[in-house]
Amino acid sequence: MTEDNAKVNAQEETETPELKEQKEESAEPKKEAKKDRWHKKPKAEEQLEKTEAELLELKDKHIRLQAEFDNYRKRTLKERMELLKTASESLLISLLPVIDDFDRAMQMLDIVEEEGHVKEGVKLIFNKFQDFLKQNGVKEIEAKGQEFNTDLHEAITKIPAPSEELKGKNVDVIQKGYYLNDKVIRFPKVVIGE
């Protein structure tokens, strides 16, 4: 090894100063290139990071789109259920005057003291009609003797209350009101005691 060292030293001594400068200059870019290689990311890594960022963005878009679709599906299902509940609303509202007439007929039948087949037949039809209404979600709003509620009752007039306990309450019901699945389809018309 000493011989090799001696040869290198001998070469260095024989080299001209210009040659030494060229070697040093050429060695510096190699050192800088090595440093740059460690500090700069290769193209493959840059592309990998870019691809990962795009993937995250696409995942986010996919999740948002899925959530929007789920909300849309739930909203349309809810609207469909509401539509099915109230689909027959116009038909049932058209039947309300028939219900009123039936109620008046039943009141008149109660006044008649005769028991006959006609009276029994009408009561039977009335009961079937009431069952039909219940099956379709129609129920009467109780109003007589109740506190007057502007959300449920329509006041026709006020009269002096027959007793102290009926003040501010519904004394009489002129026209019955009805719910259709907890939605008021007709407000009861009442007379209020004052």
Find the CATH topology of the domain at 88-193.
Nucleotide Exchange Factor Grpe, Chain A, domain 2
Low-confidence stretches: none
CATH class of the domain at 88-193: Mainly Beta
Task: Please tally the helical runs, counting DSSP H or I stretches of 4 or more residues.
Answer: 5
Order of H and E elements: HHHHHEEEEEE
Main features:
alpha+beta; Nucleotide Exchange Factor Grpe, Chain A, domain 2; three-stranded antiparallel β-sheet; three-stranded mixed β-sheet; 5 helices; 6 strands; 63% helix
Describe the protein.
The protein has 194 residues and is an alpha+beta fold. The protein has a domain at 88-193: Nucleotide Exchange Factor Grpe, Chain A, domain 2 (Roll). Helices cover 63% and strands 15% of the residues. The chain has five helices and six strands. It has helices spanning 2-14, 17-39, 43-86, 89-111, 117-135, and strands at residues 138-141, 154-159, 170-175, 177-180, 183-186, 189-193. A three-stranded antiparallel beta sheet has the order 1-4-5. A three-stranded mixed beta sheet has the order 2-6-3, with no helix packed on it. α4 (89-111) packs antiparallel against α5.
Please specify the SSE layout and strand pairing.
Blueprint lengths: L1 H13 L2 H23 L3 H44 L2 H23 L5 H19 L2 E4 L12 E6 L10 E6 L1 E4 L2 E4 L2 E5 L1
Parallel strand pairs: 2-6
Antiparallel strand pairs: 1-4, 3-6, 4-5
Helix pairs in contact: 4-5
